[in-house]
Amino acid sequence: MDFPILSSLILLPSIGALFLLFANESTTKSRQTIKYVALFVAFVNFFISIYLWNLFDKSTFEFQFIEEKQWLKGFINYKVGVDGISILFIILTTFITPLCIISVNNSIKSRIKDFLIAILVMESLMIGVFCSLDLVVFYLFFEGGLIPMFLIIGIWGGDRRVYSAFKFFLYTLLGSVLMLIAIIVIYLTSGTTDVVKLYEIGIDSNFQNLLWLAFFSSFAVKTPMWPVHTWLPDAHVEAPTAGSVLLAAILLKMAGYGFLRFSIGLFPIASELFTPLIYFLSLIAIIYTSLVALMQEDMKKLVAYSSVAHMGFVTLGIFTFKQQGLEGSIIQMISHGLVSAALFLLVGVVYDRIHSRLIETYGGLVSVMPKYSILLMIFTLAAIGLPGTSGFIGEFLILMGVFQDSFLVATIASLGVILGAAYMLWLYKRVIFGKLINNDLLKISDLDKSELFILVSLALPTLFFGFYPEPLLNTIEVSVSNLIEIYNYNLNISGNNNG
Amino acid sequence: MEILILFLPLAASIISGFFGKYIGDRNSEIVTSLFVLASAFLSILIFYNVIINGYENNIIIASWINSGTLNVNWSIKIDPLSSVMLVVVTVISALVHIYSIGYMSHDPHKPRFMAYLSLFTFAMLTLVTADNFLQLFFGWEGVGLCSYFLIGFWFKKDTANAAAIKAFLVNRVGDFGFALGIFLIFYLFGTLNYDEVFLKIPELVNKEISLLNNSPPFAFLGTAVKSIDLICLLLFVGAMGKSAQIFLHTWLPDAMEGPTPVSALIHAATMVTAGVFLVVRCSPIFEYSVLALNVVTIIGMSTAFFAATVALVQTDIKKIIAYSTCSQLGYMFFAAGVGAYNVAMFHLFTHAFFKALLFLGAGSVIHAFNNEQNINKMGSVWKKIPYTWTMMIVGTLALTGFPFLSGFFSKDAIIEFAYLKGNTTGILAAYVGIFTAFLTAIYSWRLIFKTFHGKYNNEEIKIGKIHESPAVMILPLIVLSIGSIFVGFLFKDLFIVHSDNYNFWNNSIKFLNPLSNDHPPFFIIIITPVLVTLSIPISYYLFIKNEKLTDLITESNKSLYNFFLNKWYFDELYNSIFVKPAKKIGSFFWKSVDIKIIDRFGPDGISEIIKILSLKARRFQSGYIYQYAFVMLLGFSAILTYLILY
Fold this sequence. Notes:
Largest sheet of chain A: 2 strands, antiparallel
Radius of gyration of chain A: 22 Å
Structural class of chain A: mainly alpha
Low-confidence stretches of chain B: 215-220
Mean pLDDT of chain A: 87
Helix content of chain A: over 70%
Low-confidence stretches of chain A: none
Order of helices and strands of chain A: HHEEHHHHHHHHHHHHHHHHH
Radius of gyration of chain B: 31 Å
Distance between the termini of chain B: 97 Å
Strand order of the largest sheet of chain B: 1-2
Number of helices of chain B: 25
Distance between the termini of chain A: 44 Å
Number of strands of chain A: 2
Oligomer: heterodimer
Largest sheet of chain B: 2 strands, antiparallel
Strand content of chain A: under 5%
Strand order of the largest sheet of chain A: 1-2
């Protein structure tokens, strides 16, 4: 493979954005054209990523499509490559982005051009996160992703956008600084920031705990884990729909991916040491945020809190270091990417029409919006992990993995499944069922064609992978078992060095 | 053929659900009914084949989940046990489909209703034909989902929505146990396939595990439990949820908010028996756990008794039958608990017919009374709706176990085998069973007399307006009542008796110790039929002839009456110990912890501190040179001091 396919994936959206920068958006027609250009770029990127998946060799754990360029006089290498895990996240990104662009129609009223540029730049950065094989490159992409998001919330957000943007930035930056220091320490002690090499040589066990904590502080904020989760509901509430979608579907996954790629592989001793901490925080996230979600009056906040609970399952699964747990976590992240994206879009649909996110505004929508009701039902069921949806596969595998590690933790986590059903079904009941009392709702129109297209595109994979998750499991299987091997291998060599 | 049985209902559901708008109401009804009917005929063929030729098959349709050592397939397993369930599910479902054409004729959402019914049938079939625990769980949740849809079918009624959510959540509590049971099975056996698990059971009989032992920080609390006991108890929690056994029963009476055909199909004949099916399916595991079997027996007989007492005083015709279902499911469980799995299946089989009959009959009554469900507002209409009346009488006779109708054979067999089990719980269960049978007869006849006889008590509808239901509703009733009369007699040898050369159940049910072939003492055999027969004149006297006496009895036992009327206060109890605290804690975490603690000392606090500090720092920038010079001087001298001293 000589053609730099990964770099093209990373660069293409940015090139598209650059193009848009010089476009004129004074007329309605030119605004349409801008949108089509952005959409075209995003779709091309999606097809390239599917093509990539097609070329991808599932039978090996080696990183594929590796590209390496010297940079900064050889201090740092630009190195990208994919394995079975990262490829799924790349496809998730390229799949969600065009859908976001389509959704822009109704929700963004001003400065569409700038908004689309922000989205495309963000796509580049996020793809970069999922395929970088060098810590510094990873860091640049990872933190770079903050900037467009910060702008999206700060410029196109709701009334309290400045507060939310500031909270978002403060939290995430704090973690990031520590991670940067940790990366510098790794470079100074190991002489490289190349992830593949670091997997082989391992990291000095004396430093592992501190380094792990530094990475953890960054990932925990982004996941988000309890108690550094409070930025998320605010960010979601203020962000425009497309922003919420990107935030929930992809941005949160960068942290889960980071745990998989770096925390486990590079710091096995520390990972093992801190597993009880992760379990503890995850369980709190699951139970605590589910209870909080139960009491929310704002639909978007409810979905945001449910995201925290779902990501609690992800962190739980990752730190089982078991095949089922890790695979479950990855499936759960993909599934949550689809489902939370859809849920935020669905909230956005009624918000665009009625301009209220409060649950009490609604009720009885089923009689005026039947299509909407069906789709909301599908994603509600996927969110509560009903068999036949991708959510079930993820949750079930995670719990199965956790159970092999600790009965108690699995039992408590399973309680979260009950609570999850409670808050989602209650939300559904209050919004969709009952008598239609609010007269504003009488004139509300059902999903239009583009909304229907977006939501059905999200529903199909959610259901398909629920019945037949083989394509996903197949792709990650070898990489996950290799990751577990690396973990065990490094656990042993570091342990021996230590002893 | 097996594939057709499963996928015909699914196809019907898809056609009616997605294309109902285009093909019209009537066509949706015809398509769904015909497809499910075809499925029923094929099921009967398979059942016949199983009886005559001992046919068994295990079809793998596709692989579902492959993760590490976990491999699960989509499959259709045909063995005697699943063939019985196939017949029950598809036959009752087909009849209910046909009945619904009449019952739902005034409803604006007919295609949706039929689609749900067919979808339910499909889910139930995947449940019974699974060859592994995960597909069973899929069907288990699938039927729960359809039940949720159908209970809340009339979405404008708040009570219906609340009941739907309650059903889903209470079942989730059961599923919680079930899922943990599945995890434990995988943990111990490394597989979820029935045959592989059952094969390995004997190796693990005495294996003990510590509940908390594998969670390092809690190891010291570890208490050893026999792994088999734990598996069985966890699975049984799931069964209790689905089959509405005491403590997890609260959803079933509320589920009567759904349309009556739904109550007949899902909440009487099929879905609620899934718990019994689960226990019978897992008989190779339960047989090794004395503890679990005793728990099953005790829960079963408690439910049978509890539900019967509540049924005695209810006034809603459907709720009476719902509690009756609860109670009969209790019988099935204690049959399984004393090891008579085949008898449990037999009662499941006969019960499906007469309970569906009673529900559909009740539906016909409700239809006649224009959606009135209170039996105190009925009466004296037996001549007006003669077919419905006759069928209800047949159903009641069968339910109460009147000699030679189907319930007689199955219920008496349960009581006999419980007695023959010989241990304390068994004999206790037998006596509770006899007493409950008497209560059952009383409340059933109370229902009949209050509904059809005595004075006419409805002030809103004139008695002349009461009309018989259309043929499309009566026809399924006739089929069911034929079943209620004859299936007990016809199938009792097949289900119960097994000699050395022929055993219908083959390996699908495991008996560690063969069931006793003795006969219980004569009075055990005779007492139930006698009580049941006597109950007819007793009820007639109490509820028609001398209602004053009944009132007197209730008056003098007011507190007991209220206790029964309020269903032993389970709802109130759960509301105050689960629902309300959960909401309170949720608010507390949100408003107090998230906002007042985390945000205040987190981001808001930090920004506040920075603000204060920068305000302080601003004071320095005063612009007066003498101030700057003074600060410089201070700093300079501080450095000098430092250098000199150290």
